[in-house]
UniProtKB/TrEMBL annotation:
Metallo-beta-lactamase domain: residues covered: 20-220
Source superkingdom: Bacteria
Database matches in PANTHER family: RIBONUCLEASE J (PTHR43694)
TM helices/strands, residue ranges: none
Signal peptide: none
Protein name listed in UniProt: Ribonuclease J
UniProt key word Nuclease: yes
Amino acid sequence: MTTGQDELVFVPLGGVGEIGMNAALYGFGPAKRRKWIMVDCGMGFAGEEGFPGIDLMFPDLSFIEERKDDLLGIFITHAHEDHIGAIGELWPKLKAPVYATRFAKSLLEARRLSEPGAPKVVLKEIQAGRRVQIGPFEIEYVPVSHSIPESNAVAIRTPHGLLLHTGDWKLDPTPILGDVTSEAAFRALGDEGILAMISDSTNVVREGRSPSEAEVAATLRELITEAPNRVAVTTFASNVARMRAVAEAAQACGREVVAVGRAMDRVIGVARECGFLDGLPDFRSADAYGYLPRDKVVCLLTGSQGEERAALARVSRDDHPDVTLAAGDRVIFSSRAIPGNERAVGAIINDLVNAGIEVVTDRTKLVHVSGHPRREEMAEMYAWTRPQTAIPVHGEALHLDEHARFARAQGVPNIVKARNGSVVRLAPGTPEVIDHVKAGRLFKDGNILIDAKDRAIPERRKLAQAGLVSVAIAIDEQGEVLGEPAIDIIGLPNRGRGGQPMLDVVIECVARTLSGLSKVKRRDAEAVEKAVDRAIRSGVNEAWGKKPACHVQVVEV
């Protein structure tokens, strides 16, 4: 890299080549003396497949941690977890001030920073339309429509030119609440001259335009009004516009809204403080549910992604302490399953259907719309902004590749295909990838963070596939085996394919191996452990067709 001149660079550490864990760095200055800002600091959801025992993932920010003295600020585009969820965990390693709008700041305080032991994050409120100078960067928030209030694109002015980081956005002329994506504002940025636009790729493979929140609201009102019995609606807890639509529909037909779930309660509290639920009566708590007539209640529930401990999953299993549903009631999934959650969501739907409960999803009714733009909307944004360079982000490899082709078709002169860890020099010269830095994932395992090299995850995968055999053997100084080896098997079937008990297979393998070793070899604990391990894995594989993990310990007496 050139070291003697001021360069403007973009370095994504998360959210490029994946959906979630958004963390984008912008740097200005000579290579060894750059000043940096970060846009967003989000988390991802691991799910059980491939990551047993892991719920949350975070971007590996080692690169900027080593340069934290030059990190001037962290700018949050909006309050979704994939954009703010890593702040509580990773901020202590950065210590830079965090800038966010009132809603995002309040939700961050209520959700992550109110937990025991949470760091005292330096939070600064920022207002859309006002410019903030921080080092060589001038930051301006530009309001956009999205599925959470106060979403913003970030205009970043530098001595080398204007950058536009779109964040998550769509074009919705009737968003129920919040801002519209202003054509005038983005045309003005385009007239100013945009060096590079770093833009959302989530729905680039979908033709047309995303429907409006107002259309969803009309469908919800119809479904709630015509329902003969109870109605339960599950949606993302952060989707305040959807909450408001449900509440207005309930009010119109004489029903009361009961909110169930801690995440829902937190968002409702912040939304009330910020005025997004003005004009609506207070929602009732879960303990009021059982006292309301079946045709006079609408229940807002967490759990739209099939989370096992969330309210809807508990209701579907009939083990919620306050909320029950019966045959003839209606459940509306005003959401779409995030990839990886389909099985869990499907299991809840099946439980509800088997109980005689009507389930409505976006497969049959317009009860959910995405907060991201489809191709027609993206084409309009490119026509307004006319950037010199396009860098697709916020998407998996398929989305990024298709977005690159799409941007070229819109007449963008330069396309840069970046991935997490790419160092993209934006100016001076033609934008291009000039280097790669460390990037990856961190995993929240209980109360600690581990990296991808930690042995815990691959070992758990192995245990999940083939179980564990544990053996303890006592051997004296002369190489004599004392007593019977202690053997335990976990996660293996009871019997092998020949019908023999699996425990007997293991016992026989251990006995045969020990008797086959001379006393001299039995005095070498490591050699005994390896021999017994090989014998068990081979013998169990012959009886079962799988090789278990083995833990063999020789106790020298």
